Amino acid sequence: MSIRKQPVIRSVGATLLMALVALFAGCGGGGSASNMSMVSIAGTAATGKALANAAISINCAQGSISVAADANGNYRATFSAVTPCMIAANSGGTILHSTALAGGTFNVTPETDLLLSYLAAQLGTNESGLIAGFASNTQFQQALTTQANVLTAQAAVVQNLQQTYGVTLSTPAFLSTSFTVGQPGVDSDLEALLASGAINANGEPDVAAVSLMATMGAAHPIVTSPGTNTGGGGTGSPGGMGGMM
């Protein structure tokens, strides 16, 4: 009797095995997508004047979107993604970059571009290399998703601008502080940096300012390893810099 049942048992077992294989194959194909969630990122793209109607591209560890800023340089994007993200703003030949650790306010200005130059040097590359390698380099992603790394680098940018260009920023938390073009705060700081020569006539960081941040960032490397976030050194302290949203 048991001999007669054996083919039936084998048939049922084979069917269950095939079903399980198909199930796990399906899960494997969409596993990364299951980590994605809705993220809302907003901010202002400006150089001391608005990057009116700028093309904004946001590319995250997973997920991307392109939107247009309004006439005042303000943008907002809500989409499914895994942060952190790289942000680029392009308007009239002026191209600036920034980063977003999570959902919230993240501006795109010459200051944020200098911040990326500093962070890139801390990671042993330059801004172009950081942007090009971001999507596939988990060490870059780990470094930029660690708030302490970004806040410390932001403080270093503020201090180096003050020491080299004599500009004391009224808004040191320039990455994530909301502002309006033409009003005191981040925008007036940008005007002061333009007057000091840290920003060129095209509204982008001056070559000398980029070189300064690259040199200082390289002197304070961020050490990362797969699965490990280690805050890097830098000038200044993240305390008092304002919270990231």
List keywords for this structure.
single chain; 245 residues; alpha+beta; Immunoglobulin-like; 2 domains; six-stranded mixed sheet; 7 helices; 6 strands; 40% helix; globular; disordered C terminus
Uncertain segments are 7-31, 227-243
Radius of gyration: 23 Å
The share of residues in extended strands comes to 15-25%
CATH architecture of the largest domain: Sandwich
Number of domains: 2
Helix run count: 7
Give the SSE order as H and E letters.
HEEEEEEHHHHHH
Structure report:
The protein is α+β, with helices and mostly antiparallel strands and 245 residues long. The chain is 40% helix and 20% strand. The protein folds into two domains: 1-31; 33-218, Carboxypeptidase-like, regulatory domain (Immunoglobulin-like, Sandwich), CATH 2.60.40. The chain has helices spanning 2-29, 110-122, 127-133, 138-145, 147-165, 186-196, 207-218; strands at residues 37-44, 55-62, 64-68, 74-91, 94-100, 104-105. Strands 1, 2, 3, 4, 5 and 6 form a six-stranded mixed beta sheet that branches. Helix 5 crosses helix 7. It is globular, with a radius of gyration of 23 Å.
Question: How would you briefly describe this protein structure?
Answer:
This protein is an alpha+beta fold. It is built from 7 helices and 6 strands, in the order αββββββαααααα. Mean pLDDT is 85; it is low at 7-31 and 227-243.
How does the SSE layout of this entry go?
Elements lengths: L1 H28 L7 E8 L10 E8 L1 E5 L5 E18 L2 E7 L3 E2 L4 H13 L4 H7 L4 H8 L1 H19 L20 H11 L10 H12 L27
Parallel strand pairs: 1-6
Antiparallel strand pairs: 1-4, 2-3, 2-4, 4-5
Protein name: Lipoprotein
